[in-house]
Amino acid sequence: MDILITEELDSPAIQKLCAKYEAARDATLWKDPDRLRLALAEARAIMLRNQTRLTADLLAAAPRLLAIGRVGAGLDNIDVAAASNAGVVVIAPLDANATSVAELAIGFVLGLARRIPRGDRSTKSGGWDRPGCTGIELDGKTLALCGFGRVGRKVALLARAFGMTTLVCDPFVKLNAPVWMETGAAPVATLEEALERADFVSVHSPLTPETKGLFNQAAFARMKPGAFFINTSRGGIVDEAALLAALRSGHLGGAALDVRATEPPGTSSGLEQMDNVILAPHVGAFTVEAQTRTMEAVASDVDRVLSGAPAKNFVNMARPNR
């Protein structure tokens, strides 16, 4: 077997790739680590989204593996260090989804500010609740971004078009970086300062040991009364119980989540019953354009690695070293 596909992936680019190589496709394989281990023992490449977890243990059971094709931007489900130690190329077109995710984040900001979901539900049920759908303007409001990578910078550009002031907490972006002038955003020294000043808080950080549970009870308590919280990055960054408590108490004005700590959540957390919460099934990258760009890039690089050429969208190394 040349290529193992462990999740629901399909596009003309992937079909073309599968026609060229011997491929095994099983969209449920990510749910069964034992079957996944057996399949990996034969694979030269694996293509996945965010549900397949490639641990060091699984990678050790894949002696023929040359490439991991991540169809998406997050890498928290792949042990990149273990892949690098094994000489396996990790492919991820990190720029391909940025526009789509940024536009969704701004869509959430608008949806919360103008109470669009509430108006939709009310009107469809026969109501005409104009007072209950009274919202706020974005012009003159402050948006705080936690993380200022590819997505965060696009969000800042979009927010500027609405007349918003954007504050950024990201210790990895230097104070003299050109991006501050390019986006009109301003750095703040601490997350606490950003939370205290913002009308909207939007998360654009990767899930790491440092960011896991970063938005907890203390963080939500720091936010302004009536402020709104948006997360389109990774669910594990948020303590959902703390978020629910801040919403139920009325301290927060609303929240929008595209990502959850467990996906799919399975059981109700209470967020589903909140009138001022918008929930989506991790669709930030699910636009026609982003999916086309991502799948074409990953399929092309998997083909390049398997045929002996260097990958273009690599995270750790351009060629396998094994």
List the main descriptive attributes of the protein structure presented here.
single chain; 322 residues; seven-stranded parallel beta sheet; 34% helix
Description:
- The chain is 34% helix and 14% strand.
- It has 12 helices and 12 strands.
- The strands form 2 sheets. A 7-stranded parallel β-sheet has the order 8-7-6-9-10-11-12, sandwiched between helices.
- Strand 10 (228-231), helix 11 (240-248) and strand 11 form a beta-alpha-beta unit.
- The mean pLDDT is 95.
Structure summary:
34% of the residues lie in helices and 14% in strands. The chain contains 12 helices and 12 strands.
Order of strands, widest sheet: 8-7-6-9-10-11-12
Average pLDDT, all residues: 95
Decide which structural class fits the backbone. Answer: alpha/beta
Terminal-residue CA separation:
18 Å
Output the radius of gyration: 21 Å
Number of strands: 12
Contiguous runs where pLDDT drops below 50 for at least 5 residues: none
β-sheet strand percentage: 5-15%
Number of helices: 12
Give the helix proportion (percent range).
25-40%
Shape: globular
